[in-house]
């Protein structure tokens, strides 16, 4: 039933593996995909992953730094797998405790882990127990209790014994009615109003209920973080040399009060070489989650992130002099950096040069909801490309919003006046391809690409109309534009101001692209332009939400309304701002 089971160290050394009978395909591909897309991307919240026809379940052993992975065909419903993977983990740890305690990769390689026989026994046990628990056969009507009753006994009469209590009203009140504590059976209910009410406040006195004095200062100290710290200039030959900025991560613990101050103080007592359990971390994780949400990380993502951190740390042995809070904080910090660090580098300048060699234009499509800054940032990117010596054709494919074409024409005029044709052998460096309003956007994009190819433009930037993610006809039209024209890059433009909405926007944009794709491997969002970063102070959570959902990098950050206000993201600085109390 199982395709494979493998046990490997976090350093990548395979300690033992099993391949199911009749399975010829290597499982290296699915396991590598799991490591790349889930474990390295800090998505270990729910322990499963689907890769093509396979379902993979995995378990992290943080004490011995091991990963247990099982794979089976996704059409199978194997109810025993979760327990089985736990059993294998426990058994393997118990049996090879001494070998695993020896540190160092060489020691692990030199040990032989003859686990095959134990594994087979465990597997047989798991399969047998699942069969034993198999679905019970349906009883016949004669065997059922109902068949033993007479029809009369089932009729319910008003005021009679069988009148049922109204469903769902029982727990509506959190107040408890007064009840005699010494009697076991519930006392007959007295009429309301005459009874004493006990409020569920845990017996606290008035002193405890006085919230007028706060513990510590909740204000965001130094919240006027300049966005420049969290972004770097985009690579431009004429850009001034980057002034290196350093960020101190330790400030969180040293601050008195603050959101983290309380949390850190609370668990300071827990020091020593202790193996971390979920309970130890619960309160710290809860505070971290609230903190991330306060920094504008979408609630769903904050929850998943904290869950993933907990999974990563469960069972890990803490060093002496480290607190639970600092361990969790460090793990979360690492996770955040990992999420923001692109797993794939988008190097537009290099890709444009490659397209130049192939004598074709490099095509970028901009999409996103209304008013997020698609056209403005498209103009900024045009400027950046022109500064780098490329020619740009802007395709006005927003044929929907009044003024959209004129807005682009104004940008084209301004950009050409900044880089006059006289400086470029009499040729305008940027041109607008437009066909007015009401026409099919996909058709205009296609014509523009053909025009750019004929006129030897280096880049085509396709502006599209803003659309809400729930507007099915407009989403279908966008998916069609992308499916028909196959751009080199699909950029999703999103505001840094967005909170929980980020998840919905990105999931639905990607879903629409996938649903209307004509190929097996649909073109989804390749990168993100995060706009209005200058307006958010240190609430930089949208960067995390967007990269977490898509797994794609933030290619540009818009930091204002001039052509120069385009930067790239500085992941470490963003994480520093996120962790700041
Ligand atoms: N502060 C700030 N404002 C921005 C930024 N990017 C865009 N804007 C402003 O946001 C507003 C909307 O920008 P547009 O480029 O028209 O947005 P759009 O997404 O093309 O809008 P639609 O085409 O209507 O969907 C304009 O006033 C821009 O100046 C940015 O990075 N920072
Ligand atoms: Mg626009």
Structure description:
It is a single chain. The protein is of the alpha/beta class and 581 residues long. It contains 21 helices and 16 strands. It has helices at residues 28-39, 81-95, 97-101, 105-110, 116-132, 145-148, 151-154, 206-209, 251-254, 259-266, 278-294, 299-313, 324-340, 348-357, 374-387, 404-418, 441-454, 472-485, 501-515, 541-550, 571-579; strands at residues 2-9, 14-19, 48-51, 54-61, 66-73, 176-177, 197-198, 231-233, 362-367, 392-397, 430-433, 459-464, 489-495, 527-531, 554-558, 566-569. The strands form three sheets. A nine-stranded mixed β-sheet has the order 8-16-15-14-13-9-12-10-11, with helices on both faces. A five-stranded antiparallel β-sheet has the order 2-1-5-4-3, with helices on both faces. A two-stranded antiparallel ribbon has the order 6-7. The longest helix is centred in the N-terminal third of the chain and has 17 residues, at 116-132. The protein is globular. The relative contact order is 0.10. The site of guanosine-5'-triphosphate (GTP) has 22 residues, from α15. Guanosine-5'-triphosphate binds at residues 368, 370-377, 398, 401, 404, 466, 531-532, 534-535, 558-561, 565. Its main location: endoplasmic reticulum. It holds the Pfam family SRP-alpha_N. One of its GO terms (biological process) is SRP-dependent cotranslational protein targeting to membrane. Belongs to the GTP-binding SRP family. One of its GO terms (cellular component) is signal recognition particle receptor complex.
